[in-house]
Amino acid sequence: MASREQAPHMVARVAAVLRAVAASEPDGATTTELSKAADLARPTAHRLLTSLAEEGLVDRDAKSGRWSLGPELYLLGTAAGSRYDITDSARDVLEDLARLTGESAFLSARRGDETVCVVRQEGSFPLRSHVLYEGKRFPLGVASAGLVILSHSPASEVDSYFARRDLTAEWGDGHSEEAVRRRISLTRAAGYAVNPALLVEGSWGMGAAVFDRRGRPAWALSLTGVETRFRPDRIPELGRLLLEQAHVLTTRLKTHSVP
C-alpha cells in the first residue's frame, strides 16, 4: 500500500495517464505514446493502464492494442454533468456567435493549468481552422481561450503559473514568459484575447472569458478562422461580439447550479 507521501504522487500519475488517453480520442493511443504524453516510463504507464482497465476507467482494443477511455468514466461523467456541464446553457450563445460572424465558435473550460474544448459550433464560412476541436487541451497562455483565462486571473496566480510552467519547451519562443505577459497586458486592455497565428500559420483565434458565480474566469468563448477573416478593421467588431456573448453566458450562469 502506498504511504501518505507516495499517494499524492500516484494520484498525479493516474491523472496524467487519464488526460493523455482523453487527448488521444477518438483513435486512442499505444502504451508507448501514452507514456511519452504523460511523461512516465513505459513500464509505469503500462502498469497504471492495466489497473485502470480493471476498474473500467480505460479500455484496450484487443487487435490494435490502443487504449481509449472506458465505460466507467462515462458513468462518472454523467453523474458530474449536472454540476459542471454548462453546454446546454452555452449552445445558443455559440450558435449566435457562429451565425453573426461566419466563423467557428467554441466553448472551452478551465481544468487546472489547461483549457479543454467542450463544444464546437461551425460557422458558415467555407474555409476553417482545425486547430481547436472538442476534447483538445492547451496550457493556459496558449491559444486564445487559455490566454484570456490567464489574463483575467489574479496577478498572484499568473506569477505562480509561470513559476511552474515553461511553455517554450513545447510551444516555442513565441510563448516565452515575456511574450505571453505582453499578450496578457494587451488582453486586459481590450477585454478579449487575440492569437495571431501563433500555433498554426494562417490560423487566427480570439477569445473572451466567461466567469463563474465567484467571479473567476472558468470558461472561455472563442472564434477561430483563417487569417484573412481577422483583418485589423474587423478584430474590434469580433471582440465586441465575443464580449457581449460572454456577458450573456456569465449572467445566465449566475443562476446555474455550477459552482
UniProtKB/TrEMBL annotation:
UniProt key word Transcription: yes
Q: Which UniProt keywords apply?
A: DNA-binding, Transcription, Transcription regulation
Q: Which residues form the HTH iclR-type domain?
A: 8-71
Q: Name one Pfam family in it.
A: HTH_IclR
Q: What SMART domains is this protein classified in? A: HTH_ICLR
IclR-ED domain: which residues?
A: 72-255
Question: Known InterPro entries for this protein?
Answer: GAF-like_dom_sf, HTH_MetabolicPath_Reg, Tscrpt_reg_IclR_C, Tscrpt_reg_IclR_N, WH-like_DNA-bd_sf, WH_DNA-bd_sf
Write the signal peptide boundaries: none
- Does the keyword section mention Cell cycle? no
Q: Tell me what this protein is called.
A: IclR family transcriptional regulator
